[in-house]
Write a structure and sequence with these properties.
By secondary structure, the protein is α/β, with parallel strands linked by helices. It has a single domain (12-252), classed as Spore Coat Polysaccharide Biosynthesis Protein SpsA, Chain A, CATH 3.90.550.10. It is 31% helix and 22% strand. Helix 3 packs across helix 6. The longest helix has 13 residues, at 114-126. The protein is globular. The chain starts with 11 loop residues before the first strand and ends with a helix.
């Protein structure tokens, strides 16, 4: 774990929400990847960032005991949460000091680059007006842009999100014109601790429900999300399907 002084005096705490239930990959956090459970890979990657602490938030005793077994910090949370954000918010109330920045790292991204954690937290360290940040990467593969599982984002001139969508945005009205690449959203978030608690109690919104994208709730309620655009490298590969699992296993042995 780097010194927290590398990025200023505001402490950053990573919370990794992890649940056992998964329709496509039951017990996903505990699946074996190169001799370690997936959750340990995520935890160890997060520990390499400039953070004050890393915690796993779970509602399952099996995950709790595995994390404890490898020496990780772990906290039990309610089993009634509908989203990872809700689980992170509950854990933050118990383990995050006042004034800290909270980074929500998904528990199914064992190849996450630690530098992305530093990069997503940086806007909140640098500007007290920023309450939430996320990451995006240029998307040069046009076929991937058509994939609804690949979320796209468009930003204003100050780098704040205007909209997130499963559709390829912006739409190019004039075919053949010179265009910039789409921006692929990476589901990594940093919050000010007090705003995380606000977010957790905001009412769900229409666009959020239509797109099935929780971050749209923030925009629809009038808050802003700073988008950190990262060129190349550091791609977060989520494990959602058996095919994803095999891909990650292959990458870990390269």
């Amino acid at each position: 774990m780097k010194s927290v002084n590398d990025f200023g005096d505001v402490p950053v705490v990573v919370i990794i929400p992890a649940r056992f239930a998964s329709s496509r990959l039951p017990g996903k956090p505990l699946l074996d990847l190169g001799g370690k459970p997936m959750i340990r890979h995520v935890y160890e990657r997060a520990m390499q960032a400039a953070v004050a602490a890393v915690w796993v938030a779970t509602d399952d005793r099996r995950i709790f005991e595995v994390v404890q077994g490898f020496g990780g910090r772990v906290v039990m949370t309610s089993s009634a949460h509908l989203s990872g954000t809700d689980r992170v918010a509950e854990a933050a109330r118990a383990v995050v000091p006042a004034g800290a920045i909270v980074v929500n790292v998904q528990g199914d991204e064992p190849l996450l680059e630690p530098a992305l954690i530093d990069q997503v937290a940086a806007p909140l360290r640098q500007d007290a007006a920023v309450v939430m940040a996320t990451v995006a990467q240029p998307l040069y593969d046009l076929s991937a842009g058509q994939d609804p599982n690949c979320v796209k984002v468009v930003c204003d001139r100050q780098g704040f999100a205007l909209y997130f969508s499963r559709l390829p945005i912006p739409f190019e009205r004039d075919a053949g014109s010179v265009v910039r690449p789409l921006l692929r959203h990476v589901g990594l978030y940093a919050y000010r601790g007090d705003f995380l608690q606000t977010f957790a109690v905001l009412a769900p919104t229409e666009l959020e429900q239509r797109e099935r994208l929780e971050q749209l709730r923030v925009l629809e309620h009038g808050y802003r999300i700073r988008v950190v655009v990262v060129e190349g490298g550091g791609e977060a590969i989520g494990v959602d399907t058996p095919a994803d699992l095999q891909r990650v296993r292959a990458l870990l042995v390269e």
